[in-house]
TrEMBL record:
Organism of this sequence: Muraenolepis orangiensis
One protein family per Pfam: 7tm_1
PROSITE patterns, A to Z: G_PROTEIN_RECEP_F1_1 (PS00237), G_PROTEIN_RECEP_F1_2 (PS50262)
Taxonomic lineage of the native organism: Eukaryota, Metazoa, Chordata, Craniata, Vertebrata
Span of domain G-protein coupled receptors family 1 profile: 58-322
Protein name: G-protein coupled receptors family 1 profile domain-containing protein
GO MF: complement receptor activity; G protein-coupled receptor activity
UniProt keyword annotation of Membrane present: yes
Main location: membrane
Top-rank taxon, per record: Eukaryota
Annotated transmembrane regions: 45-65, 77-101, 121-147, 159-178, 221-242, 262-282, 302-325
Keyword check for Transcription: no
Basic and acidic residues composition bias: residue spans: 363-374
């Protein structure tokens, strides 16, 4: 039933990815879920439209301010690249909305099917690793503020950002290769956009199905490890050290704002992406298992649209988390949008840090974290 619930470039779509038997086995209890899937599809369309409007507007404003209205700093480089990744993805959301609204008929051709999926995963990898870079930058600013003051530069930040995009493009390129279009099993007039891991229309030859299953497993596990486990581990580790350092400084520990921002960053990252990766693993396990489980199939039928919607929402949450939580929201809401974002992204240009031969003062620590906190 994968072509019924797969409404996004993230999901594998139509049973052809798995090579676990005939299409009849995939659809034998289709009628049991018609109403449920219809409700989930409506929910998905609403969420995608919301993510599109908020994501394009929010990230568009961030790009406008950081790219054209502000002096380039390390922080503005990070947030500009994060906003570009999210804006690029949300700009393609009308394709997913149309696909869902047309009962999963893809009218845009094979190239756009490939491109839409690739952009989706490009956003996932780029935004995740940009968050990793931001976390490492914050870690360095707190743990080694003197070194950070002397070595952090716009040029180096731009080079690191370029490296992130190259890595994200490399990790997302297989989806451009494997994504394909084909007629639906039940209605030849319906064209599905799906992942054809075997690059073949042969679903009868055991060797071809084995190759399809192997590539499906490899892609899912690689995405889980490199798109979630490794980045999340780095982010948590960086903030664990930051929290430990801040707790040793009583003057900083009295302020709850850094801890709230850290909690928001980690929680949003986990809540938006963990469900999607868990659903992908459940779907993989169920379709490579010897005995197909209807229970797990019901779980993915309900869970995949919800989990994917959460992942989509992450692209419009970032401007809120990294801009409006930088300082007191009530104070910022009274300002103009330009002043709000300039205040949120601005780095300290003049620091009254008093360094000694053996270290630095408490005030220098506080301002170093303030830069990383934004």
């Amino acid at each position: 039933m994968m072509d019924i619930i797969s409404t996004t470039p993230f999901y594998h779509s139509n049973g052809t990815d798995f090579g676990n038997g005939s299409f009849e086995e995939e659809y034998e209890d289709e009628d049991d879920h018609v109403e449920l899937r219809r409700s989930l599809n409506i929910m998905s369309i609403i969420v995608y439209c919301l993510a599109f409007v908020l994501g394009v507007l929010g990230n568009g404003v961030v790009i406008w301010v950081t790219g054209f209205k502000m002096k380039k700093t390390v922080n503005t480089i990070w947030f500009l690249n994060l906003a570009v990744a999210d804006f690029l993805f949300t700009a393609f959301l009308p394709l997913s909305v149309t696909y869902t609204a047309m009962d999963f008929h893809w009218p845009f051709g094979r190239f756009m099917c490939k491109l839409n999926s690739t952009v989706g995963f490009l956003n996932m990898f780029a935004s995740v690793y940009i968050l990793v870079v931001i976390s490492v930058d914050r870690y360095v600013s707190v743990v080694w503020p003197v070194w950070a003051q002397n070595h952090r530069s716009v040029r180096k930040a731009s080079c690191v950002s370029l490296g992130v995009w190259v890595l994200a493009l490399f990790l997302s390129s297989p989806y451009f290769i494997f994504r394909d279009t084909g007629a639906s099993f039940h209605n030849k007039d319906i064209i599905n956009c799906f992942s054809n891991f075997a690059l073949s229309d042969d679903y009868d030859t055991p060797a071809v199905n084995q190759l399809r299953q192997f590539r499906h497993q490899a892609m899912t596990i690689t995405r889980f490890l490199l798109g979630f486990v490794v980045p999340f581990t780095i982010v948590v580790s960086c903030y664990a050290v930051i929290i430990h350092r801040l707790r040793r400084n009583r003057s900083l520990a009295r302020s709850g704002r850094p801890f709230k921002i850290i909690a928001a960053v980690i929680s949003a990252f986990f809540l938006c992406w963990a469900p999607y990766h868990i659903m992908a693993l459940i779907e993989l396990v169920n379709h490579v298992a010897t005995d197909f489980s209807n229970t797990l199939d019901h779980v993915t039928t309900i869970g995949v649209p919800i989990a994917t919607s959460l992942a989509f929402l992450n692209s419009c949450l970032n401007p809120l988390l990294y801009v409006f939580m930088g300082q007191d929201f009530k104070e910022k809401i009274r300002r103009s949008i330009l002043k709000v974002l300039e205040s949120a992204f601005q780095e300290e240009q003049s620091r009254s840090n008093t360094y000694t031969n053996s270290g630095f003062t408490t005030r220098s620590k506080e301002r170093s974290f303030s830069d990383a906190e934004v």
